[in-house]
């Protein structure tokens, strides 16, 4: 009789262990590890959102890895990562490749309006730049525009706006947007092309120091000047406004989709706003009381 009871207890204990193991393997948005691929241009906002998520869900561990936009997209296709931050509009071929290789419909999760901005040294006499100057300059052998590298989000986006392929543009390279700002005074006749999020944090000391080194040039288009400020981004009037979005190959509601949902909620959008970017999903509302 005692042996029978022992066998029953052993069986029950085994079932409990197996059940616990199954539960541990089940999808979870509030615990586990996740790597997010992001271009350097929007690394700051991505890290801020990751920090917010980990504060809300202490059992999660999120690592933000810098990867050029095109290469990050390829890693997503090949299953080397579960989530990537993107800005460029994908071509029909890229959409098809994603849906065939990942075997799910592509669902961009838009979360912020950012911008590509054109900067000159703080003491430069230049006060604005026109669309024609940008178009002509990127076809000139002078290579007066400095980008942070090939395959970067900034180069991809500008090329797309000008309806060109990146390989057809002529430009100089200084790796890293922060390096462009810090070294631009060595090249007084050059114009740096960087992502706004590089130095958009209003009260961040590093961002403040970087903003003191350069002037952001308003862009003239059809006789009007447009600035990459909150109004220019919110209303998409600034010509080089871009929308940041997440792509994931995660088919269930695990940590990647949990992070995306968090980033698009009011709490996540408040973090976007504190980064100096325009939240995509919430807007300030003014109410007049009478």
From TrEMBL:
<feature type="domain" description="PBP">
    <location>
        <begin position="32"/>
        <end position="263"/>
    </location>
</feature>
<dbReference type="InterPro" id="IPR050811">
    <property type="entry name" value="Phosphate_ABC_transporter"/>
</dbReference>
<dbReference type="InterPro" id="IPR024370">
    <property type="entry name" value="PBP_domain"/>
</dbReference>
<protein>
    <submittedName>
        <fullName>Phosphate ABC transporter substrate-binding protein</fullName>
    </submittedName>
</protein>
<dbReference type="Pfam" id="PF12849">
    <property type="entry name" value="PBP_like_2"/>
</dbReference>
<keyword id="KW-0732">Signal</keyword>
């Amino acid at each position: 009789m005692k042996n029978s009871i022992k066998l029953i207890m052993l069986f029950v204990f085994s079932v409990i262990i197996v059940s616990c193991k199954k539960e541990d393997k089940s999808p979870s948005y509030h615990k586990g590890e996740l790597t997010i691929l992001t271009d350097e241009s929007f690394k700051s906002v991505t890290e801020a959102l990751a920090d917010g998520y980990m504060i809300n869900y202490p059992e999660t561990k999120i690592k933000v890895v810098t990867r050029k936009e095109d290469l990050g997209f390829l890693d997503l296709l090949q299953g080397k990562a579960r989530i990537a931050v993107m800005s460029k509009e994908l071509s029909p071929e890229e959409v098809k490749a994603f849906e065939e290789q990942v075997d799910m419909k592509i669902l961009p999760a838009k979360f912020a309006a950012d911008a590509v901005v054109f900067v000159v040294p703080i003491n430069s006499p230049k006060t604005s730049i026109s669309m024609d100057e940008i178009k002509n300059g990127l076809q000139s052998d002078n290579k007066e525009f400095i980008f942070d590298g090939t395959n970067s989000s900034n180069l991809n986006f500008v090329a797309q706006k000008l309806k060109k392929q990146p390989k057809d543009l002529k430009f100089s390279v200084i790796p890293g947007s922060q390096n462009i700002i810090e070294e631009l005074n060595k090249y007084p006749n050059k114009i740096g092309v960087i992502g706004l999020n590089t130095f958009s944090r209003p009260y961040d000391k590093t961002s403040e120091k970087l903003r003191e080194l350069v002037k952001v040039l308003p862009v003239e288009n059809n006789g009007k000047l447009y600035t990459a400020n909150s109004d220019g981004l919110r209303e998409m009037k600034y010509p080089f406004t871009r929308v940041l979005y997440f792509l994931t190959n995660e088919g269930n509601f695990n940590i990647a989709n949990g992070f995306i949902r968090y980033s698009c909620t009011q709490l996540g959008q408040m973090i976007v706003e504190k980064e100096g970017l325009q939240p995509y999903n919430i807007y300030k509302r003014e109410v007049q009381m009478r």
